[in-house]
Amino acid sequence: MTVFGRIRQGLARTTKQLVSRLDEVLGAPGTAARRSRPVDLQTADALEEVLLSADVGVAATGLIVDAVRAQAGRDADLRALVKAEILSVLAGAERPVALGGPPHVVLVVGVNGTGKTTTVGKLAALARAEGRQPLICAADTFRAAAVEQLEIWARRAGVDLVRAQAGGDPAAVVFDALASAKARGRDLVIVDTAGRLHTRVNLMGELEKIRRVAARETPGAPHEVLLVLDATVGQNGLVQAREFLQAAGVTGIVLAKLDGTAKGGIAVAIAHDLGLPIRYVGVGEAIDDLVPFSPRDYVDALFEEKW
Amino acid sequence: MRSAGQVTTPGADRQREMFEALSTRLQDVFRSLRGQPRLTEESVEAALREIRLALLEADVNFRVVKAFVDRVRDRAVDQAVLRSLTPDQHVVRIVRDEMRALFGDTTGGLPPATSSPRVILLLGLQGSGKTTTAAKLGAWLGRQGRHALLVSTDVRRPAAIAQLSVVGTQAGLRVHDPEGEMDPVVRASGALVATKNLGYDTLIVDTAGRLHLDDELMAELEAIQRAVAAGDRLFVADAMTGQDAIKSAGEFNRRIGVTGVVLTKMDGDARGGAALSVVGVLGVPIAFVGSGERVQDLEPFHPDRVVSRVLGMGDVLSLIEKAEQVITTEDAARLERKIRRDEFTLEDFRDQLRAIRKMGPLEQILGMIPGMGALKELNAQRDQIDEGQLTRVEAIINSMTPTERRQHQMINGSRRKRIARGSGTSVEEVNRLLKQFVEMRKMLKVVGGMAGSGRGKKGKGKGRRQALHNLRSMMNQ
């Protein structure tokens, strides 16, 4: 299945929710008469409501609604306008992935229960499918059975795993993993870290230590720091992104669990407020249910006219 | 009387912190209302806009926000309120009433068991914290003198069963784990038999995280429920969750029937508005709050306590009511006249002090003053303004001659020495009191001048408000 198809599949329910409501607001596609009607205040309010209910957030919603409002009275395709606005917010945050290594080091961080371990397993499988040689580093030495969970994912992905004893020093595991990757000639190390609330100063400091150790062993590492967000997260997702950006140098977002009715609208808010790009989208529980994010595909899927 | 300032358990502190961000926003709104001579429809609208934004940013469901704001508007633009002389307090009162209505009169914890053994089913989306909650809940029940057996029916997530075994054992709880049994329903019903056979009085069933629209898994949940007939079906919700929470919780409620909500990860800075909306929409209480990674970090939710916290208004209403009781309208009017004419004396000061003390213990009053209850500096302030000090201030004033009380300027060095000796205090304390009094007079003059120029006609409520102003400024000394 094409990438577009996967995103569309994952977003099917999201799309149904969002687009059908947008259609109510903006007029169904193809109904030219309705499409070109002027934007009245009610339409703008309804649009605002739709976006807020998708967790897009007050600021980004304001931007989009203002753009729509500015078109009031003119012959504008509101649907295209809204789509273009969201796309420009998302595309504005896009940037190429920094290259480095070998090994290329990817650090996966986030608060508790967003889906980091699952994402690491899926990332490893994706990298294998691209012909790379990944190694998984189990640096979540805190949560009970986290390493066991990751071992099962590593087995599924057919990838080696470097682990430590429960309660061990996560930075030490990262050190071991990097040494091991060099010895075994692996070109990619994916580091799973323990979930931590961004309000825990000491735990955030631990991430800095991991970064320091990684940079000492491999120049420029970690080359990517992915923040895993639950697609159902509300406005706190923005706070999380801001805090992890500061403490761990996040370079991109993984939007996990986008297979529910949640719309992951916080991604738009994060792209708008922090300029952080969305890198991957998790759309299911199977190992290949992680797809690279493309703003155009996302918005197209969100607004696809025949779904 | 319930005192908002005296929240002592650490968990409650965390609950408070969580709501502080929202409180700050609302406080700003009310600060902008404060001091306005009267409400206009425009100022109400401005306040409502802010309230709406604050609630939306706190992830309160947008429908709940809309209904909430509409109700507040309906009541706030009522003519009686618009004409009111204490408009800010009126709006606060309305917002608070509506907020209370939203929460209902629910209390945290678990209702009395309806069956023996008691069966508790934990449900929710992936990653909301069910497994951790299972162990914490078992430990909490243990502290209540109960004996809980745990079982995991999560055969899907890798190592989920192992995780429950580890956290359960850490909590000193027995975990039912028939090796190799991979049928969730069999695991659950087997655990129920084991609960009875082993003499446990409670069974906690952990389930796999599932999406509310995964029909197959929801059916599995129904089958588990049929097998164990859990009287408590707790929906575990992440405090950080967004607008979708109502939809997912609603679906779990429709299919299984949710009896309570466990709000997890409350030790973060999420405002929890979505989870609170769930309570408002489904009408089920929040039973517990999880606020840390240790096994004891779970405690019953106190909705009533939180309403005041959400508003960040302390117990303003109680304060007003109390002030109304001890400061009669005539007293207030007399005081106001004096302030306007710059005739406020140490005698009046003493009268006010006495009035304050009639209102109750100082700590309680401080807790009722906006900002004071939540302020970090409170501890420092508390050292300065304790009951003992009020007694000494009164003693100092009592040791003055009536003339001195009416003309504080005449109190020179030797008089100060005499007053200190007479009141059993020190000259420094007398100096401090006089200095504070002079500053207070200056401030009152400004405030009094404003109140005087605002309107020609004197109202009954204004004097009271004035007295409150004075009261607050004294507290802040």
What does this structure look like?
The complex is a heterodimer of chains A (307) and B (477). Chain A contains twelve helices and eight strands. Chain A is an alpha/beta fold and 307 residues long. Chain A has an eight-stranded mixed β-sheet with strand order 3-2-4-1-5-6-7-8, with helices on both faces. In chain A, α5 packs antiparallel against α12, α6 packs parallel to α7 and α10 crosses α11. The longest helix of chain A is centred in the first third of the chain and has 24 residues. Chain A is elongated and about 65 Å long. About 2% of the residues of chain A have low confidence. Helix content of chain B is 59%, strand content 8%. Chain B contains 22 helices and eight strands. In chain B, β6, α11 and β7 form a beta-alpha-beta unit. The N terminus and C terminus of chain B are likely disordered. Classes of the chains: A alpha/beta (307), B alpha/beta (477). At the A-B interface, α3, α7 and α10 of A face α2, α7 and α10 of B.
In the CATH scheme, what's the topology name of the largest domain in chain B? Rossmann fold
Report the principal-axis shape of chain A. elongated
Spatial arrangement of strands, main beta sheet of chain A? 3-2-4-1-5-6-7-8
Level-1 CATH class name of the largest domain in chain B: Alpha Beta
Most extensive chain contact? Answer: A-B, 44 and 46 residues
Structural category of chain A is alpha/beta
Oligomer: heterodimer
Q: Give the termini separation of chain A.
A: 16 Å
The strand count of chain A comes to 8
What share of the residues of chain A lie within helices?
A: 40-55%
Number of domains of chain B: 3
Mean pLDDT of chain B equals 75
CATH architecture of the largest domain in chain B: 3-Layer(aba) Sandwich
> Which series of helices and strands of chain B comes N to C?
HHHHHEHEHEHEHEHEHEEHHHHHHHHHHH
| Count of strand segments of chain B | 8
Whole-angstrom Rg of chain A: 21 Å
Which range does the strand content of chain B fall in? Answer: 5-15%
User: How many strands, what sense, and barrel or not for the largest sheet of chain B?
Assistant: 8 strands, mixed
